[in-house]
Specification:
By secondary structure, the chain is an alpha/beta fold. It has 2 domains: 7-281, Aldolase class I (TIM Barrel), CATH 3.20.20; 329-426. Helix content is 44%, strand content 13%. It contains 16 helices and 12 strands. The protein has helices at 29-42, 56-68, 82-91, 108-115, 119-133, 152-165, 181-194, 214-224, 245-254, 270-281, 302-310, 338-347, 354-370, 376-395, 399-405, 423-426, and strands at residues 7-8, 10-13, 46-50, 73-79, 98-105, 140-145, 169-174, 202-207, 228-231, 261-262, 298-299, 329-330. The strands form 3 sheets. Strands 2-3-4-5-6-7-8-9 form an 8-stranded parallel beta barrel, surrounded by 8 helices. Strands 1-10 form a two-stranded parallel sheet. Strand 7, helix 7 (181-194) and strand 8 form a beta-alpha-beta unit. Helix 1 (29-42) packs parallel to helix 2 (56-68) and helix 11 packs across helix 12 (338-347). The longest helix is centred in the last third of the chain and has 20 residues, at 376-395. It is elongated. The two termini are 47 Å apart.
Length: 428
């Protein structure tokens, strides 16, 4: 942390490991390698490439990524068991920078019901795992699964011991997404204060989104002293997913006044990486997903569109190009106003008179009442209809003379008076 109170946060991306564990998100080795290259371009510090003991394909993917990706640290997951650690170490053999990430549950619930272990057995297994992992690399991460529901005294004892054994990163997951931000902040602050050798390791947070709090909890963990955040592209992962990388990073950019941390992420590659994940897995991002959803920079309501045309800061807190989105989209629908119609017409090279715009607006809303949005082809069809109707009117005997004599502007037949726009969506 520098004198301004701003700290550096390590981005540990687990899209290829925890993210892939979500139903429907399984990836082949070539697909994982494509995504790993994208994560490298994005600037993540650590890529967790897989769980080698889980399957031969996972092991092959870790080997391929270790061979093909050189800048970031490549991590492999292993349970606190010798067989797992050997498998992880072998899979990482060719990595330029490697990390073994070993874990064991520390909560009484997991120890008693799942592992059938005592505190002492868990303690000894954790220390032995770190000792063994250090034979393969000096970069060893220990995770206390279900840390936030563990007995704090026992957890602190385990953390102190694994740091003494050589762990360089301590990850404390909110495995089931149960905690709230105030709890997480206090949790990290308490452990960093109680563990005597806490200064010898980087502390990490890994939050799940079961209550929709993964990003908020990760931000709170940083306030409490965590200096590594585990996250995934699009927030994918077990059950309701993990903290979304794109949200964590953009909070630090947009609200640097409140989120006092920086990362090395190249944000202009966020959208492309998100889209690649969607392509590889076949799993679409929800439309209203922050940062990368298709509606994140789209506006349909007339009031909003008018504000955006005057100054986009009225309804956008970041520029779409900052995350790799080409531009803001003004969606034409039943809530849109005339200004948006005029702008979209201009975008396709059409200039309308006020009377034509009024009629085009009315025709557009008629179409929008029948379907969700109006396309550029619809607008071209509307223009063609207006121009066809205008030609007979212009050719009618005396039409120009009458208009000129009255000092009036020629209008299309049946041209309405200026439309009165109404309702929240149509306000301009």
């Amino acid at each position: 942390m520098d004198g301004s109170g701003i700290c550096d946060v390590v981005v540990f991306d687990t899209t290829l490991r925890d993210g892939e564990q979500a139903p429907g998100f399984s990836m082949t080795t070539p697909e994982k390698l494509r995504l790993a290259r994208a994560l490298d371009r994005l600037g993540v510090d650590i890529i967790e490439a897989g769980f080698p003991l889980a399957s031969s394909d996972d092991a092959e993917a870790v080997k391929a990524i270790s061979n093909g990706i050189r800048r970031p640290v490549i991590a492999a997951l292993a349970r606190a068991a010798e067989r797992d650690i050997v498998c992880a170490g072998e899979a990482l053999a060719s990595a330029q920078r490697k990390r073994i990430h070993t874990f064991i549950a520390t909560s009484d619930l997991h120890l008693e019901r799942k592992l059938h272990m005592t505190h002492d057995q868990c303690f000894n297994a954790a220390v032995a795992a770190i000792t063994h992992a250090r034979k393969y690399t000096d970069d060893v991460q220990f995770s206390a699964e279900d840390a936030t529901r563990s007995d704090l005294d026992f957890l602190c004892r385990v953390i102190e011991a694994v740091i003494n054994a050589g762990a360089t990163t301590i990850n404390l997951p909110d495995t089931v997404g149960y905690s709230t931000p105030d709890e997480i902040e206090a949790f990290f602050a308490s452990i960093l204060n109680r563990v005597p050798n806490a200064d010898k390791a980087i502390f990490s947070t890994h939050c799940h989104n079961d209550l929709g709090l993964a990003v908020a909890n990760s931000l709170a963990a940083v306030r409490g002293g965590a200096r590594q955040v585990e996250c995934t592209i699009n927030g994918i992962g077990e059950r309701a997913g993990n903290a979304a990388l794109e949200e964590m990073v953009m909070v630090s950019r947009v609200r640097a006044d409140r989120a006092k941390f920086t990362t090395r992420i190249h944000t202009q590659h966020i959208f492309a990486t998100s889209q690649l994940l969607t392509e590889v897995t076949g799993q679409a991002v929800q439309a209203n997903k922050a940062i990368v959803g298709r509606n994140a920079f789209a506006h349909e309501a007339g009031i909003h569109q008018d504000g955006m045309l005057k100054d986009r800061r009225t309804y956008e807190i970041m520029r779409p190009e900052d995350v790799g989105v080409e531009s803001t989209t003004l969606v034409l629908g039943k809530h849109s106003g005339r200004h948006a119609v005029q702008q979209r017409m201009s975008d396709i090279g059409v200039t309308l008179t006020r009377a034509e715009l009024d009629r085009a607006y009315r025709l557009m809303t008629t179409i929008a009442d029948e379907r969700k949005n109006v396309t550029d082809d619809d607008l071209r069809a509307i223009v063609a209809q207006l121009r066809e109707q205008a030609e007979p009117a212009a050719a009618a005997p005396g039409s120009r003379k009458v208009a000129k004599a009255a000092g009036a502007r020629p209008a299309a037949p049946d041209a309405p008076h200026a439309l009165v726009e109404f309702g929240y969506g149509h306000g301009v």
